[in-house]
Amino acid sequence: MTRSHMPALGRRPALRVGLAVAVGSVVGGAARTAASQPRPPLHKIGVLSFFAPPAGPLIDPVDIGFRQGLRELGLVEGQSVVVERRYAEFMPARLAAMGEELVRLKVDAIFAVGQPARDAARRATQTIPIVTMGGSDPVREGWAKSLARPAGNITGLTFTFPELNAKRLELLKEASPGLVRVVVLIDPVEVVDAVDVVREAEAGAKRLGLQLQVLEIHGSKDFDAAFEKARRGRAQALLTIATFPHRAQIAALAAKDRLISMGESSPEIAEGFLLAYGADIVDLGRRCTLQIGKVLKGAPVGELPIERPTKFRLSVNLKAATALGVTLPQTLLLRADEVVQ
């Protein structure tokens, strides 16, 4: 090898070192630039619920749906979204302070679960978007101009409507073909359209050849007198309307009087009801969360339509059936979305 080639060979290591330094400088600079950029602000959602928090064996279908909706939106709690949860545990007097606290925390949206929670959120703010889930007529109650365009700071899903109770009576009749007398427990304070609800139930009962005994209650203090009237009326079955907070107590009283019981949603099955039929609450929670996602992206809450259920669940409690000595028809069991052993 000639001496003229030597310098070129000798410069190669220096070239490699130079490239490494240059590349390192670029990568290090990019890392410093990324680190210096501010992180996008976390979204903050307030959950204001009239109900109790999930604990032990208690499963909250609303919370399951809420978490499912967050996943669909690509939101990770603690990373891209902060969730402030407040539960009134069926005590409406707690809700006002809880709603005001969420406003002070400057949440981006409030998910109000249940009619009392929605009312408390409305009193607490007229500017923060509210997405609600509950059984009511929004237009009749005055918090929405129309279902298609609410126009205020609140939207959501409404899932209680009169015609469902006729279907529940039909299912009771299918479960016990010899059924004649049904007692209906209704809390009119919790049902804005209580008159229409009862009228629809009576019309459904007439078509099925059933006799209804409608009893109004205003909380658990009326239960003893109501069940005494049901005994005097020789009731064979029980249909409940807007009594969800008292589901465990009502289920126990119905079982004691050997009444076939029908609730409005699957959580009542876990407390001992024989049957439940109503909107799929997990799906409602999920869809409310997707509405919240639209709000977080800048959609005006007053222009988001108020939605109604599209999925319904029939739940059956075989343990309760055994205790009552009721043999449920196979056709009913095959249609059930949930069968509890």
Compile the SSE list and pairings.
Layout: H1 6-36, E1 43-49, H2 61-73, E2 81-87, H3 95-104, E3 109-113, H4 115-124, E4 130-134, H5 138-141, E5 154-158, H6 163-175, E6 181-186, H7 194-208, E7 211-216, H8 223-232, E8 237-241, H9 247-256, E9 260-263, H10 267-270, E10 275-279, H11 281-296, E11 312-317, H12 318-324, H13 330-335, E12 338-340
Parallel strand pairs: 1-2, 1-3, 3-4, 4-5, 6-7, 6-8, 8-9, 9-10, 11-12
Antiparallel strand pairs: 10-11
Please describe what this structure looks like:
This protein is of the alpha/beta class. It has two domains: 43-159 and 280-311, Response regulator (Rossmann fold, 3-Layer(aba) Sandwich); 163-279 and 313-340, Rossmann fold, CATH 3.40.50.2300. The chain has 13 helices and twelve strands. It has helices at residues 6-36, 61-73, 95-104, 115-124, 138-141, 163-175, 194-208, 223-232, 247-256, 267-270, 281-296, 318-324, 330-335, and strands spanning 43-49, 81-87, 109-113, 130-134, 154-158, 181-186, 211-216, 237-241, 260-263, 275-279, 312-317, 338-340. Helix 2 (61-73) packs parallel to helix 11 (281-296), helix 3 crosses helix 4 and helix 6 packs parallel to helix 7 (194-208). The protein is elongated. The model is unreliable at 1-27 (pLDDT under 50).
